[in-house]
Amino acid sequence: MSRSGLPSQTCTIARAVAQVGDEWTLLIVREMFLRTRRFDDFLRLTGMSSHLLSQRLKKLEAQGVIRRKAYSERPPRYEYHLTEKGRDLWAVIIALKQWGDRWLSTEDTPVEIMHKTCGQVVAPRMTCPDCGEPIGAHDVEALLSQPFELERQAARHVL
Amino acid sequence: MSRSGLPSQTCTIARAVAQVGDEWTLLIVREMFLRTRRFDDFLRLTGMSSHLLSQRLKKLEAQGVIRRKAYSERPPRYEYHLTEKGRDLWAVIIALKQWGDRWLSTEDTPVEIMHKTCGQVVAPRMTCPDCGEPIGAHDVEALLSQPFELERQAARHVL
DNA sequence: GTTAGTCAATTCAAAAATTGAAGTGACCTC
DNA sequence: GAGGTCACTTCAATTTTTGAATTGACTAAC
């Protein structure tokens, strides 16, 4: 499906990247979090070409990330909504925002996150579900399963 | 720099996406978290073309996400390391992993995250820094600043 | 009742990016 | 000195993306 050599990998990161890891897709998802729903608005607000938008929306729908809903029968008109799977991408978008805020910031932050439960504007952060402490870049280490590690040492192209 | 129409946007999400929001870049960063350091290993483990790897590494270095270090003078040989800015992308990678684990999973999880402070294998989660509760997709809402909202309503292509 | 406008697309040629294979240069090992 | 390693570069062929124009099914205004 994707142009890249990332077909069906074992690694869930590689799989996630193959599904939503491109510029326009991430931007579409971002727009959806900002409540953009219609073809023309995506076009207008992202500046992408209509051909590509059309392609990406089809791909995202096929993947179950978004759902197309008719809001008018004649003429046929559609809106796009995130599915549960799509909504669950919020952590990715917020992580990108957090990183952008920290490393690419201008003065203003045009988008803020509100925690509806407590009503506050917040910067959500990653914490350890075990000890409850916030986790930073230095507190974390990736572990590879034994078979995966061996596979990687031997083979070529094992994501 | 990027092929897309995402030059210098106000929105930090759009800026972040412009810097690291493409498939191969995310895969390179992922590999770095798995302690891959050398050109040939990136090539072997990701399956990307050497031309593109070379380009992407140059771009990431120019952006200050990675740093190139000589580990041999003659012949000249280099290793690539994440900078602090690059290491700070860990939350993005983990968010992608979390999403992949949930929505694209096979049986096995070849990569695990260890919290070095408490020594546990964990699934870090986003929490509210204010009330301390875990935040899910439904607990959160995006707020746009007044000027940004107005800009978007009027203009075309305002990320 | 014609003209203009909206909206969700599709079409198509030109431009740009990516692939895949081959090559390069500076070594090291057998 | 033949072959191998490593970090790339080069280049033609393929694939994607862009950008502009067009379509089709309407609705609203004059």
Can you lay out the helices and strands and say which pair or pack?
The structure is a homodimer of 159-residue chains.
Chain A (H helix, E strand, L loop, with lengths): L11 H9 L2 H11 L5 H8 L3 H13 L3 E7 L4 E6 L1 H4 L2 H14 L7 E5 L4 E3 L2 E3 L12 E5 L1 H9 L5
Antiparallel strand pairs in A: 1-2, 3-4
The first copy, chain A, binds a DNA duplex (30 and 30 nucleotides) through helix 3 and helix 4.
Largest β sheet strand count, sense and barrel closure of chain A: 2 strands, antiparallel
Number of strands of chain A: 6
Average pLDDT level of chain A: 90
**Sheet with most strands: strand arrangement of chain A:** 1-2
Outline type of chain A? globular
Please describe what this structure looks like:
- The structure is a homodimer of 159-residue chains.
- Chain A has 159 residues and is α+β, with helices and mostly antiparallel strands.
- In chain A, 43% of the residues lie in helices and 18% in strands.
- Chain A contains seven helices and six strands.
- In chain A, the strands form two sheets. The first copy, chain A, has a two-stranded antiparallel ribbon. In chain A, strands 3-4 form a two-stranded antiparallel ribbon.
- In chain A, a hairpin with a 4-residue loop joins strand 1 and strand 2 (77-82).
- Chain A is globular, with a radius of gyration of 19 Å.
- Chains A and B meet through helix 1, helix 2, helix 3, helix 5 and helix 6 of A and helix 1, helix 2, helix 3, helix 5 and helix 6 of B.
- Strand 6 (140-144) of chain A pairs antiparallel with strand 3 of chain B.
- The structure holds a DNA duplex (30 and 30 nucleotides).
